[in-house]
Specification:
The complex is a heterodimer.
Chain A (H helix, E strand, L loop, with lengths): L5 H35 L2 H11 E4 L8 E2 L5 E13 L1 H6 L4 H12 L3 H8 L6 E4 L4 H10 L4 E10 L7 H4 L1 E2 L5 E3 H5 L1 H5 L5 E5 L5 E3 L1 H4 L8 E4 L3 H17 L4 E8 L4 E8 L18 H4 L9 H10 L9 E2 L4 E4 L2 E4 L6 E2 L1 H7 L2 H11 L1 H10 L28 H6 L8 H12 L3 E3 L4 E5 L5 E4 L4 E4 L3 H12 L19 E10 L6 E14 L6 E8 L7 H19 L9 H11 L27 E3 L8 H10 L3 E6 L2 E6 L5 E3 L3 E7 L1 H14 L9 H9 L4
Parallel strand pairs in A: 2-10, 25-28
Antiparallel strand pairs in A: 1-8, 2-3, 3-4, 3-5, 6-7, 8-9, 10-18, 11-12, 11-23, 13-16, 14-15, 17-20, 18-19, 21-22, 22-23, 24-27, 26-28
Chain B lengths: L1 H15 L4 H10 L6 H38 L9 H30 L4 H22 L5 H20 L4 E3 L2 E7 L2 E3 L1 H20 L6 H21 L3 H18 L3 H21 L1 H11 L10 H13 L24 H34 L3 H25 L17 H18 L6 H8 L7 H4 L6
Antiparallel strand pairs in B: 1-2, 2-3
Helix pairs in contact in B: 1-2, 1-3, 4-5, 4-13, 4-15, 5-15, 6-7, 6-8, 7-8, 7-9, 7-14, 7-15, 8-9, 9-14, 10-11, 12-13, 13-14, 13-15, 14-15
Chain lengths: 705, 465
C-alpha cells in the first residue's frame, strides 16, 4: 500500500490488524472449546460415543477339545449346518412359501404345516431345522431357495464313540457339559461366554473386535488327559470280554502309572456312546470306577501287611498261627478256605488267609490299621477331577466294633473304589509313596498356552521303602503256582498283585447277598520295576466269582498288551512257556474272604480222543448262543431245553462221543443258576466253584459283624 | 482424424445436393457425435499452421520477453521469492488433507463404491492439479489480474446463475455443481475468488471515494447481494454468508464508513431472520446448534456426533485411522466434518496443531497484505487470507459446536476438488502478492541479504515464465 498516503496506509494497517485480531479470537475460541471438549471434560462425550459404537456381543465360543496323553482327540466340537430362513426375503422373491415349505418338509422331514406357518410369517429369522446331516445340508443348498440359508453351529462329537465315555461324559445339544469331565471341566472347556466388546457401525454391522479378530481368545481351553487311548481301548476291550464271559453285571478297570500317579485308563462296563447318550440308561453312564464303592475283600490284605511291617507289629519271617481254619473273634468265627497251621506273612498273602491277616491286623491295632488304610487313600476322595466321586467308607477306628479290626484288615466292613485300589496299590509299587492320582494332565488355551499342568506329586510316604519292597515281593507269589491268581501271571514279567473275592453286602436285607460277588484283581508289573498298576473289578459275575479266575485273566491280557504298548521289555527271559505252564499247573485254592472253594480249574486228565470221536466241551454256564457255537466247533450237535444259561448237559463234559452226536442241554434263567449250581456243587463233585455251608455262615454273620 | 473430417465435410456437402442416400445416411449416422466436428476443424487447423509455427518458434521465445518487458515498466519489479513459510504451510495442509480424507472416507467409500480408496485417489488427483496451479499462479504477476477482473466476475456469476436456475447437477437437495466437460465444478467456490479480485480491483480504483455511499459502498454491496441471492437460490447458505463476510471485510479494510456497514447489517437482519425462520431446515439447524443433545436423533444428530467425536478423541486421540465415528455415525465425515475426525483420531494435540497451521497461514497472508507494494495487492491479500481464514475457523467452530451448521468445508483438508482448486489458486495469488517488489520494505529486507541468484529469470518470474 505504498501507493497510498501514509495516513491512510496506517489506518488500513490498523483495520487489518483488527481483522486479524477477530480471526485470532476465533482461533482461540475454537481451540479453547476443543480443549474443553477433549481434555477438560471428555468423559461424558466419550461414554456417549462408546455407547453407540460398542456393542457387547455374546459369542457361543468353541468348546475346548479333550485330548488323550498323546494328542489323540477324545472330544471335539465340530461345525454342523443348521438351516434357517428369512421369510421376508423369501416372500419378496416371489417364491410361494407353501411350495418352499413342501420342498423343505420333504427333504428334512419337518412338519409341513409348521413350515408353512413359519415361512409365511413376517419375521426375519426362523429356524427350519437344526443340525443337519451333510447330505441334507447339500440338498438344502441345491434347492437354492431365496432367503433360505445354512448356518454353522457347533456340535460336540466323540470320535471314538464309547471310548473313555465315562471319563469324558458328554455335553448336551447346547454344548453344556452334563456328565464326566465335560461337566467337571465345564468352566475351562466352555470358553468365555462373557460378552465381547465389539465395534459396530451405525447400521449395526460389527466392524471390528479385537477378540473376534482372534477368536481363539474366547474359545474354550483344551484339556489333555493322562488317559492313553490305546490302553483305554485295551482296558475296555478286556473288561467287556470279562463281563460277557462271566456274565457279570458290570465292571471297572483302572490303569495307572505308579511312578507318577497318572491315570492311563478308566474303563467301565456297561458303557454308552456319548454321541447319543439318550440311547443308554443312566446306569450305563455311571463311571463305576469312581462312583461305585464295593467291599474290597482280600485286596486290602497287602496294605494291612505293609502297615504291620512298617509299624513293627510283625516281622516278614514271622510265623503266624492260622488256627486251623477257624478263629473266634468276639462272637463271630472267621474262616479260611483251607486249614492252615501257621503261615508267614508272605504265605498269608499267597494263600489269602483271612485268619492270618486278621491276626496281623489285630497285632497292628485298630488305630494304626485305620491310619495305614487311611494313608493309603481309603475313605477319602482322590480329587481326580471326575464328578460324583465317592470316598468309599472307612469308619473312624473309634467307631469300630470289636470285630472290625479283624475283618477290616482283610477288607470287610469297609468299601473302596476301583480308583482308590489302583492308587493304593500304586503306592506299594512306588516304594511306599502314594502319588496324587492325575487324570487332567494339562489345560491349554486355544492358542496353545499352558494354563494348568498337573505335575506328579507325592501325597505321602505311606510305608517305608523297605516295607513296600517286602510286601511287593510277597505279592509276586500270588500269581505264582501256589497263589490265588496264577491266571494273572504274565509272560516275560513278574507280576505283584492281590486277588479279591468279596461277597456283596445286601443293603435291603442286611448281611451279605447270596451269590453276589465282587471279584477283583489289583496288581502291577513288572513287579521289581513297576511300570503299570491296574485294578480290575468285576461286579456280580455269574459263572465264576474268584478274583483270580474272573479278574486275573483280564489283568493279564490288559497288562500284556499295555506293557507292550508302553514299550516295556520283558524282564524274565523265556518266561512265556513257564508262565503258561505255571498257569496250567496252578491249583487255584484258598478262597477269599469267608468263602472257600475247591480248586477252580482242576488239572483233569483228558481222555484220549480217537478217530471219528469228539471230546464233549464243558458248556455249563454258557449262554445258548455260546453253547451252540462251542458245540458246533467241537463237531457235535445240540438239543436245547429251556432258555437262559446252560445248567446241565448230557453227556457229561470231557466224555468222548462219536463225531456229530447230539448233546442235550438244559438251560435256565440265570437267576436260578446259582441255586442249581449250589445244589450241584453239594451233590456232585464239580469243578465249579461252590458255595457251601460257609456261605450260610457268612450270611448269618451279618453285615455289621 | 483428417480423413474423418474430410469425410464429414463431404457428407455435409452432400446435404446440400441430394445425391446418394447412402452418403446422407452415413452423415446422419455420424451426426450423433457432433463433437467430432470440432476436433475435425482443429485437426484441420494444425495442418495449415504447420508451416508458420516452425517460423514462429524462434519468435515465440521473444514474445513473452516482450510481453513481460512491457508490464514490467508499469508493474513494480519483483525482487524476491514468494513466502516460503506460507507455501510450506499450504502444501503441508493439502498433504495432511489427503491423508485425512482417506482415513475419514475409507469405510464409507468401501460401502458405497466398493473401493476404500475411492476418495483418496480423487483427492490425490485434485491435489496434484491444485498445487501446481498454485505454484503457477504464484509466478503470475497479480497486476495482470486486473485485466481479467470483469471476465472472471461475469463468467463466475453466469455459472452461478446457471446452477441457481437449475442447469447444474443436483446432489443432496442442492444444485451446487455444474458440468464443464468431464469435471463438475462448484461456481459457488469460484465466485468468491472472482468477488475478491473484483473488490480489490474496484476498491483500489476508487481510493478515497470508498467513503461515499453511492460510489464506494452501494455498488459493492449490490454486487455481493446479487451473488448472495444466487447462492441462496441453490441453496448454499454457507457461501452466501461467506460472500457477505468477504465484502464486509474488504469494505472495512478499505475504510468504508462503519455507519453504512452497520446500517446494511441492520437492514439485512430481518432478511436473514426471514431466511432462517422461513426455512425449516435452517431453523432446525439453529435449534440443533443451541441444544444438540436434546435433538440428538434428529436435527442435532450431526453436531452431537461431532462433539462426541471430539470427546472420544480426548487429549491424544485414538490414533490415525482408528476413528469409530466414521463408521457412519458422523455424517459428512470426509467433507464438512473432517475436523471432527481429526479431533477424534489425533486428539486435542492434533487439532491444536491444525489450528496453529491456519493461524500461521493467516499471519503470513496478512503479512503479505502489510508488505504489498500497492493497495490492490493489499486488498487481494486481505481478501484471500480472510476468505481462507474465515472458512477455516467457521468450519472448525461449527465442528466444535460454537456456530450452527452451515455446510462450509475446511479449506485444503476437506474432500472436494472445486474448493481445493479454488483455494489453492487463491493462495497462488496471495503467494504472488507476498513476493518482495522494488520499493517495499520486504524488498529492502531481501536486498540486504546477498542472496545473489544466478538465474535472473527467477527475479522476473512475475512474468509468464
Amino acid at each position: 500500500m505504498r501507493n497510498l498516503p501514509p495516513k491512510r496506509a496506517r489506518f488500513m494497517r490498523f483495520r487489518i490488524a483488527l481483522l486479524a485480531a477477530v480471526l485470532g479470537a476465533g482461533a482461540l475460541a475454537v481451540t479453547y472449546r476443543a480443549y474443553d471438549l477433549q481434555v477438560r471434560d471428555p468423559l461424558d462425550l466419550k461414554a456417549m460415543a462408546e455407547r453407540q459404537y460398542l456393542r457387547d456381543i455374546k459369542l457361543s465360543p468353541k468348546r475346548g477339545t479333550i485330548y488323550d496323553r498323546n494328542g489323540a482327540e477324545l472330544a471335539v466340537s465340530v461345525d454342523v449346518d443348521s438351516v434357517y430362513a428369512n421369510p421376508r426375503v423369501l416372500q419378496k422373491s416371489g417364491v410361494d412359501p407353501v411350495y418352499a415349505a413342501g420342498k423343505l418338509s420333504a427333504l428334512l422331514g419337518v412338519d409341513r404345516d409348521r413350515l408353512i406357518k413359519r415361512l409365511t410369517s413376517k419375521r426375519y429369522f426362523v429356524w427350519i431345522k437344526r443340525r443337519l446331516s451333510p447330505m441334507q445340508a447339500k440338498a438344502v443348498e441345491a434347492l437354492k431357495l431365496p432367503g433360505v440359508a445354512l448356518m454353522g453351529e457347533a456340535r460336540r462329537f466323540y470320535p471314538n464313540r464309547q471310548l473313555a465315555s465315562h471319563v469324558l461324559g458328554f455335553a448336551n445339544i447346547d454344548g453344556k457339559g452334563i456328565e464326566g469331565l465335560e461337566l467337571s471341566l465345564e468352566e475351562q472347556l466352555r470358553g468365555s461366554t462373557d460378552p465381547v466388546p465389539a465395534i459396530r457401525d451405525r447400521r449395526g454391522v460389527v466392524v471390528f473386535s479385537e477378540q473376534l479378530l482372534d477368536d481363539r481368545a474366547a474359545q474354550g481351553d483344551s484339556v489333555v488327559l493322562t488317559i492313553d487311548k490305546t490302553i483305554q481301548h485295551i482296558a475296555e476291550r478286556e473288561l467287556e470280554l470279562a463281563v460277557r464271559t462271566f456274565e457279570a453285571k458290570g465292571g471297572s478297570v483302572v490303569v495307572m502309572d505308579p511312578a507318577t500317579g497318572e491315570v492311563l485308563a478308566i474303563a467301565n462296563y456297561p458303557t454308552f456312546n456319548p454321541n447319543d447318550p439318550a440311547a443308554s440308561p443312566t446306569s450305563h453312564r455311571r463311571n463305576r470306577a469312581v462312583t461305585d464303592r464295593f467291599e474290597p475283600g482280600s485286596t486290602i490284605k497287602p496294605f494291612t501287611v505293609a502297615g504291620a511291617l512298617a509299624g513293627g507289629a510283625i516281622r516278614s519271617d514271622q510265623s503266624i498261627d492260622c488256627e486251623d481254619g477257624a478263629m473266634q473273634v468276639a462272637e463271630y468265627t472267621i474262616h479260611d478256605t483251607s486249614k492252615y497251621e501257621s503261615l508267614t506273612p508272605g504265605q498269608i498273602l499267597e494263600y489269602s488267609s483271612n485268619i492270618g491277616t486278621a491276626k496281623i491286623g489285630m497285632a497292628l491295632g485298630r488305630k494304626r490299621l485305620y491310619r495305614t488304610l487311611r494313608d493309603f487313600g481309603f475313605g477319602q476322595v482322590s480329587r481326580v477331577g471326575l464328578p460324583g466321586e465317592t470316598s468309599g467308607i472307612l469308619r473312624h477306628y473309634r467307631k469300630w466294633y470289636e470285630m472290625d479290626a479283624a475283618t477290616i484288615s482283610f477288607g470287610q466292613g469297609m468299601s473302596v473304589t476301583a480308583l482308590q485300589l489302583a492308587s493304593a496299590m500304586g503306592a506299594l509299587a512306588n516304594k511306599g509313596r502314594l502319588m496324587r492320582p492325575i487324570l487332567i494332565k494339562r489345560v491349554e488355551d486355544a492358542r496353545g498356552e499352558l494354563i494348568e499342568e498337573a505335575l506328579p506329586r507325592v501325597r505321602r510316604q505311606v510305608v517305608p521303602i523297605r516295607s513296600a519292597r517286602l510286601v511287593s515281593d510277597m505279592m509276586i507269589a500270588v500269581t505264582g503256582e501256589g497263589g490265588t491268581a496264577p491266571e494273572a501271571a504274565l509272560d516275560g514279567h513278574l507280576v505283584a498283585g492281590k486277588t479279591g473275592t468279596a461277597q456283596k453286602a445286601d443293603y435291603i436285607n442286611g448281611g451279605y447277598a447270596e451269590g453276589k460277588w465282587t471279584s477283583s484283581f489289583v496288581g502291577y508289573a513288572p513287579a521289581r520295576k513297576p511300570r503299570l498298576v491296574a485294578a480290575v473289578v468285576i461286579d456280580e459275575p455269574l459263572i465264576h466269582h474268584y478274583g483270580g479266575t474272573v479278574a486275573g485273566p483280564t489283568f493279564r491280557r490288559l497288562m500284556d498288551a499295555s506293557l507292550r504298548h508302553r514299550g516295556v521289555v520283558a524282564t524274565v527271559p523265556g518266561d512265556r512257556p513257564v508262565a503258561r505252564k505255571r498257569r496250567r499247573k496252578a491249583k487255584p485254592a484258598e478262597g477269599e474272604v469267608v468263602v472257600e472253594a475247591k480248586p477252580d480249574a482242576p488239572a483233569r486228565e483228558l481222555p484220549e480222543v480217537g478217530e471219528g470221536e469228539r471230546l464233549v466241551p464243558d458248556l455249563r454256564g454258557q449262554t445258548a448262543r455260546g453253547a451252540l457255537a462251542a458245540v458246533h466247533k467241537a463237531g457235535l450237535g445240540a438239543r436245547l431245553h429251556g432258555s437262559g444259561v446252560v445248567v446241565g448237559q448230557e453227556p457229561e463234559p470231557f466224555s468222548v462221543v462219536p463225531e456229530g452226536s447230539p448233546i442235550q442241554l438244559r438251560l435256565e434263567a440265570p437267576d436260578h443258576v446259582r441255586e442249581d449250581e449250589l445244589q450241584e456243587g453239594q451233590q456232585a463233585a464239580s469243578d465249579k466253584p461252590q458255595a457251601g455251608p460257609e456261605l450260610a455262615v457268612a450270611a448269618e454273620r451279618g453285615r455289621d459283624g | 482424424m483428417g480423413m474423418l473430417g474430410d469425410l464429414l465435410s463431404r457428407a455435409r456437402g452432400g446435404d446440400a445436393e441430394p445425391t446418394k442416400r447412402s452418403t446422407r445416411a452415413l452423415a446422419r449416422n455420424r451426426r450423433p457425435d457432433a463433437e467430432s466436428d470440432a476436433p475435425a476443424d482443429k485437426a484441420a487447423r494444425p495442418s495449415k499452421k504447420d508451416k508458420p509455427s516452425k517460423k514462429d518458434k524462434p519468435s515465440k521465445k521473444d514474445k513473452p520477453a516482450r510481453a513481460t518487458a512491457m508490464p514490467q515498466q508499469a508493474f513494480p519489479k519483483v525482487v524476491g521469492p514468494a513466502d516460503a513459510v506460507l507455501t510450506g504451510t499450504v502444501i503441508a495442509l493439502v498433504a495432511f488433507g489427503v491423508v485425512m480424507v482417506y482415513s475419514a472416507s475409507a469405510v464409507f467409500a468401501h460401502s458405497r463404491y466398493g473401493n476404500g480408496q475411492y476418495f483418496l485417489i480423487k483427492q490425490a488427483i485434485f491435489a496434484v492439479v491444485a498445487l501446481p496451479t498454485m505454484v503457477a499462479l504464484a509466478k503470475l504477476d497479480y497486476h495482470r489480474l486486473r485485466a481479467l477482473t470483469y471476465p472472471m466476475l461475469v463468467g463466475a456469476t453466469l455459472l452461478l446463475a446457471a446452477t441457481a436456475f437449475g442447469l447444474g447437477r443436483r446432489a443432496g437437495g442442492a444444485s451446487r455443481w455444474i458440468s464443464l466437460g468431464p469435471v463438475n465444478v462448484q461456481p459457488g467456490e469460484i465466485i468468491k475468488v472472482a468477488l475478491i479480485c473484483w473488490l480489490a480491483y474496484s476498491l483500489s480504483k476508487k481510493r478515497e471515494q470508498i467513503r461515499s455511499f453511492s460510489v464506494g459502498f452501494l455498488p459493492h454491496v449490490l454486487m455481493a447481494a446479487i451473488m448472495m441471492v444466487l447462492c441462496l437460490k441453490q441453496p448454499d447458505f454457507g457461501s452466501a454468508v461467506m460472500i457477505g463476510l468477504i465484502t464486509f471485510v474488504l469494505l472495512f479494510t478499505a475504510g468504508a464508513r462503519l455507519g453504512y456497514m452497520l446500517g446494511a447489517g441492520i437492514l439485512a437482519l430481518p432478511i436473514v431472520y426471514w431466511l432462517v425462520a422461513g426455512s425449516e431446515y435452517r431453523m432446525r439447524r439453529i435449534t440443533a446448534f443451541l441444544s444438540p443433545f436434546e435433538h440428538r436423533y434428529e436435527a442435532g444428530y450431526q453436531i452431537a456426533e461431532s462433539l462426541m467425536s471430539f470427546g472420544a478423541g480426548g487429549a491424544s486421540g485414538v490414533g490415525i485411522g482408528d476413528s469409530r465415528q466414521k463408521l457412519f455415525f458422523l455424517p459428512e465425515a470426509h467433507t464438512d466434518f473432517i475436523s471432527a475426525i481429526i479431533g477424534e483420531e489425533l486428539g486435542f494435540v492434533g487439532f491444536a496443531v491444525l489450528v496453529i497451521a491456519f493461524v500461521v497461514l493467516i499471519a503470513r497472508g496478512l503479512r503479505a497484505a502489510y508488505l504489498a507494494v500497492d493497495d490492490y495487492g493489499t486488498y487481494l491479500a486481505v481478501g484471500i487470507t480472510m476468505f481462507v481464514g474465515m472458512q477455516a475457523f467457521t468450519n472448525l467452530a461449527v465442528a466444535v459446536g460454537l456456530l450452527p451448521t452451515k455446510g462450509l468445508v475446511l479449506p485444503f483438508i476437506s474432500y472436494g476438488g472445486s474448493a481445493l482448486l479454488v483455494n489453492c489458486a487463491a493462495i497462488g495469488l496471495l503467494l504472488n502478492v507476498s513476493r518482495p517488489r522494488e520499493g517495499t520494505p520486504a524488498a529492502e529486507l531481501t536486498k540486504k541479504k546477498p542472496r545473489a541468484r544466478g538465474n535472473p529469470r527467477l527475479s522476473e518470474a512475475g512474468g509468464l515464465a
